[in-house]
Write a structure and sequence with these properties.
Blueprint: E1 13-18, H1 22-33, E2 38-44, H2 47-57, E3 62-66, H3 74-84, E4 89-94, H4 99-108, E5 112-115, H5 120-131, H6 139-149, H7 163-173, H8 178-185, H9 189-203, H10 208-217
Helix pairs in contact: 2-3, 3-4, 4-6, 6-10, 7-9, 7-10, 8-9, 9-10
Length: 221
């Protein structure tokens, strides 16, 4: 498997898995534990168990969350999980590339999504991407965000984005990854991260999905 490097590779990223299929849960957790600098330290079968574990031991860096769960489903659970673990990056697990469900999850606060059929390499890339502040939003999801917020744009009253921040945000809205943005603008990943942090702060959001929604809603790009 090709090495995937990020700024966070120097430390171990803790990953929890919330998935009701026990066999798949064991398989995925084992696969994650074989990836350098990733540790699947909790494997849980429901949102309720996950919330209890967060209260007991503190939150993980990344949570992989199934959509179809007994009791509280993954999308409905996102506000509660965000409140309990505001610093945790949440990646939705789906069986199919269902853009409607993924879009709903993004609007509810998910940082990205991952198909259950993904390769081990892709799983590692997705976890490391969200752990370093990125997210997974393909052009189809970005288009849905645009459709929802079209006609509802407001004047942005916060600090103005710089020209470079606007360029970065425009590429993010197009669905580019941080790596692709860095290449497109001839910047380092570290510089792109810095611009994104500034963008999040100015737009009063805490993740990439929120930045895209705010940008489209307020007519910034």
């Amino acid at each position: 498997m090709p090495d995937v490097t990020t700024d966070s590779d120097s430390r171990t990223t803790t990953v929890w898995l919330c998935e009701d299929n026990e066999r798949f849960r064991r398989t995925l957790c084992s696969a994650i534990n074989q990836i350098d600098h990733l540790e699947c330290s909790q494997s849980l079968g429901s949102v309720e168990d996950t919330l209890s574990q967060i209260a007991e031991s503190g939150p993980p860096d990344v949570l992989l969350l199934d959509i179809g769960l007994p009791g509280m489903d993954g999308i409905s659970a996102l506000p509660s999980l965000r409140a309990a673990a505001p610093g945790t990056r949440i990646v939705i697990l789906t069986v199919f590339d269902d853009h409607d469900k993924v879009f709903r999850a993004v609007c509810a606060g998910a940082d990205g999504y991952l198909l259950k059929t993904s390769t081990v390499e892709r799983i590692g890339e997705a976890i490391r991407e969200v752990a370093s502040g990125g997210a997974s939003m393909n052009p189809e999801i970005a288009r849905k965000v645009l459709d929802v917020f079209s006609g509802k744009r407001e004047t942005h009253s916060g600090p103005a984005l710089t020209d470079r921040e606007t360029e970065v945000l425009r590429l993010i809205v197009r669905g580019m990854t941080k790596k692709e943005v860095a290449v497109e603008l001839d910047l380092s990943r570290h510089t792109v991260d810095s611009h994104l942090r500034n963008i999040y702060q100015k737009l009063h959001v805490n993740n990439r999905a929120g930045a895209v929604a705010a940008a489209l809603r307020e007519g910034l790009v």
